[in-house]
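Morning - adenosine-5'-triphosphate inputs below, output right after.
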Amino acid sequence: MDPLDDVENSKQHHHLLKRPPVDIEFSDLTYSVPQGQNGSKIILRSVSGLFRSGELTAILGPSGAGKSTLINLLAGYRCGDAVGSIMVNSRPREMKTFRKMCRYIMQEDLLQPSLTVMESMEIAADLKLGYTISKEDKTNTIKDIIQMLRLTAANNTLMENLSGGEKKRLSIALELINNPPVIFLDEPTTGLDDLSSSQCISLLRDLAHGGRTIICSIHTPSARLFALFDHIYVIADGQCMFAGVSQDMVPYLSTVGINCPKHFNPADFIIEVCSKEYGDYTDKLSTAVENGKCLRWSQNNSIKKTIVRRASQYDVQSNHLYDFSSTGWAQFTTLLRRMVLQHKRDKSYLFFKLFMYTFMGLVVGGMFYQFGNDASLTIFNYGFIFITIIVFMYTPLMPVLLKFPKEVQLLKREYFNRWYGLNAYFCALTCSQLPMQFILSFVYIIITYLMTDQPLEWERGIKFSIVCLMVSLSSESIAYAVSSQFNVTNSVFLGPCVACPMMLLASFGLGYDENEIPSLIKLGMNFSYLRHGVEALVIAIYGNGRKQLHCGEGEQYCELRYPSELLKTVGMSTATYWGSLSSLCAMFVLFKAASFVLLRRRLSTKPSLLLKLGFVGRFIKTHFNIPR
Ligand SMILES: Nc1ncnc2c1ncn2[C@@H]1O[C@H](COP(=O)(O)OP(=O)(O)OP(=O)(O)O)[C@@H](O)[C@H]1O
């Protein structure tokens, strides 16, 4: 029976159905990374090999040997400056199709916080399977996988409270939902005790024997674990030291004059050999297996001839098998549901934010208490407007700068494993923040607006609120743009640095004749969203024919009793509310677009643009710690 028919026919046991076999062959794979001013460091040196479906393959080697690099290249997670060929079912790997069929479980268990095991599975199922299969089938699939991975007892446990082994099993369970034919795992047993490790490897072996291609890197497996692997690929110094079945390894080592002592774990022994504890055998071993070209070493070395490379089982026609099952809309609604649930669970953070906005409102309201309608204090009321803009710049900025760099790591994993598209994620992220941003902004606005005695007119109040909201949304977008590129430390430093010049340009013009402002600064002012925010707020409060302000009896200094005088004094006499608001909205769209493009760039597996800029790019990348 054609495996493709198998796929098409059975929809009931989605996770059990067979996928077309996928064999991965690589030859003369060389990978280097730039190092120093003009140099580069070679990590993989012309290695070759064949990883077949239906087998559990272990990539073994000492620390720093190049295991993760090899997995990254084969999975397509990093393509960088790799040279050589990677074939999938004897055809050159076509990244677009291959990405759809492989899943990569990274060393670090990056899991969505504040969700239980069951919720994580349900959301992953909604994202990956969409609404194309019935709820019942979906529930059965989830139950089967949870049972298979022995997670039933932890069904209702929050991710934060899971043990290391449970986290690892959950990472695997999440990727099994849509039954990928190829799974890469980077050190799946790290942090697990012996029992959990052997349970994890046995499970992977069962999955592989069910027709999948499973490749994992592993440090020093126990003799028991070692025997569970169908195929061993040993790497050291970026070269292949052995490729074959585990039982062949000891005879292989004897043929090059290295005898493994009796009762010694062969896996430990070869790691010691590769670590040069018995002398440098690197070249000798690499030559003996032709740096991986011999595919499977055996005593008569005939395996190379007998391995039959499968004809291509997938091609453009079967491409659709691995397309997203869920529509963009389904992904959006599921992601939104997940984000809202996580917001709700993170109550302390919500209360903290609410407290912060209330506290800020009371402090600012107290500082400018009843200044709004007092003509002798108009210039100080301008200060209130400016401070309000600063509040709406900083308060949405900092939480994003602190939280998003971590979220990007998670996003990278889910995006790479094709849980959803970036459009759906970005829209859900934007929408999930909006209600809270509305509520928090209004808390601050109502407190300060009333305490500072601003004009109680609906139109002015609404215009004031719209501007505050737009400023906070723009700041948030800047924060997303910055934190999508940098780690937490650099983001927290850089975010305010980007906002600071905008703040200075916003206040420029006070006491100046508009015509006296140097044209370069004027140009800069046009690019400051805070400037447009201040302008729009000042006009919302003082523009549109606001009547003369109240001047207390015996007050000597009441020059600014006419609102138009204030507009002149702060250099905003020619500005209009709608003009400034439009510019603010345009800047918001620009920041939003920039954050989307930068995020897409960050998620891309293509080589960094900075590296293409040669020395300057490399300098920026290394000295400013820009992660991949
Ligand atoms: N971007 C990079 N820049 C410089 N060196 C790198 C880079 N990436 C990897 N390396 C180096 O390449 C070598 C191989 O790294 P890799 O992570 O593949 O090793 P590994 O075998 O997986 O090690 P471990 O078992 O400790 O995780 C290491 O010496 C590492 O320092």
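Note: The chain is about 55% helix and 10% strand.

O.
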